[in-house]
Amino acid sequence: MSAKKQRPGAILLADGAGKPAPVEPRMAASRPSLAATREAPASEPPFQWGMIYLLARIFYGMRSRTEEGLKSFGLTPMQVTILATLSRWDGLSSAELSRRFRVTPQTMGEMIANLERRALVERSQDPANRRALRLNLTKPGRVMMRKCDKALDGVEAEMFKGLSERDFKQLRRQLMQLHADMGLTAE
Fold it and tell me: In terms of Cα–Cα distance, which of 66, 88, 73, 68 is closest to 135?
């Protein structure tokens, strides 16, 4: 077959007589044709999503809904996570928080400073190490945390309303197992 007659995308392999024979490239079996994707129901993805892609899409959707749920408080999800962490483990340092959340000390310092300006957290000197400062929630910080918890409970209820209680508990157990399998701490 001459180069002019060869179809675009065809791969030439030698046949038994040593002459090139056109072979059509194979498409992945899990991906349907473009026409089939146009006809797919709106509720179904046009192809089989990988788990990482699916979890990433869920994460970004969840983050967007969480940001919306916290908007009235003027806090970001990360700031609320810091408040929640301090409500559970009072007295952590900024350095401990930056390691825990895998952000630079400068980034954590800025977030803490914003929370401090709003009087939601305060720094106090560590009695065992005069150079170290410990972070604590203030009374307004604890009140804010309760309000944010209530708002986030509503976001969670809305996000998982399609699951039965049994399915919700099973999903939670599976996600906790994935969390542990990845070596992430429960702290």
Answer: 88
Rounded Cα gap, residues 68 and 77, in angstroms: 10
Pick out the chain residues at pLDDT < 70: 1-47, 186-187
* SS3 state at 127: coil
Alpha-helical runs (H) found in 42-104? 51-70, 77-88, 94-100
Distance, CA of 36 to CA of 47 (rounded, Å): 10
Does 38 reside within a domain? no
Residue 64 token pair: 């967007």
- Residue 165, domain member (yes or no): yes
Which one, of 135, 118, 123, 138, lies nearest residue 75 by Cα? 118
**Residue 70: φ, ψ to 5°:** -100, -5
> pLDDT digits over 142-156, tens only?
999 999 999 999 999
- Alpha carbon distance 102, 131 (integer Å): 23
**What's the predicted TM-score (pTM) here?**
0.68
CATH of the domain at 107: 1.10.10.10
Q: For residue 32, is it within any domain?
A: no
Query: Do you know the residue count of the chain?
Result: 187
Beta-ladder partners of 23: 11
Domain residue limits at 77: 73-181
CB 111 within 8 A of CB 80: no
Name the β-bridge partners of 137: 121
